Amino acid sequence: PQPAGNAKAMYHPGGKKTAIIAGGRKKVHTVWDLGFEQVEEYDATTDQLLLRKVRKEAAAGRPNKWEVEVGEDLQAGGGGGGDELIATSSDQPSIVRLDTKEAFQWRVRNMPYPKETYQVTADDEKNQVVIRTTNKKYFKRIDVPDLNRLGLRVEEGGISIAHANRTLVVSLKKPQKILELEAELRKERKSMKVSKEGDADCKQQ
Predict the structure, then answer these.
(1) Which of 204, 185, 198 is nearest to 49 (CA)?
(2) N or C: fewer beta carbons within 10 Å in the chain?
(3) CA–CA separation, 83 vs 106, rounded Å?
(4) H helix or E strand, kind and range, residue 187
(5) Collapsed DSSP state (helix, strand, coil) of residue 126
(6) Which of left, alpha, beta for 196 (phi over 0: left; psi -120 to 50: alpha)?
(7) Residue ranges of the domains in the chain?
(8) Do 17 and 28 contact (CB within 8 A), yes or no?
(9) Residue 51 CA: distances (Å) to CA of 34, 40, 95, 147
(10) CATH class label, 15-196
(11) Residue 80 neighbours by CB under 8 Å, 6+ apart
């Protein structure tokens, strides 16, 4: 079925939400009857999304592992966003998604090559962002679950890149529909009853 035209339809309609402020972050935990669960962490001052992780209930009724979509889960020790084709180590490329208000954005660290080495395109068939280098040292496919959930396309014209300090920054302009939904979600968060650390526990594990 097509998502409904409201903020909660970013995943599924409805859902039980709880929120807590701890360590300078507003942590919002949502559970749906369908067995889908989400944790989001926002900067308590700027409301920037710092972490989003999701998981689905396994067939036996036990939860699956968390899948990180945005940011880095310090408890789990890693970020997410696609299939890495290079083994992870301290000097190997690593990718993390940290969005801005206007764009989806990925930062690929340990990328020492000149800016002209990088080719970033849209794969229309798989609806992915694709990063490759002309020297064939790096290749990465990136899913954008926000777009997939709403049936929206990755538009190559919305892709831009920047490179500095051995970090490649890939930005994808957010469609108007996403901007509208996120504006509704911001209003919802402002109106939520929020507990402070020590008053309640925002269940994450």
Answers:
(1) 185
(2) N
(3) 14
(4) helix 176-191
(5) coil
(6) beta
(7) 15-196
(8) yes
(9) 22, 5, 14, 18
(10) mainly beta
(11) 67, 68, 69, 97
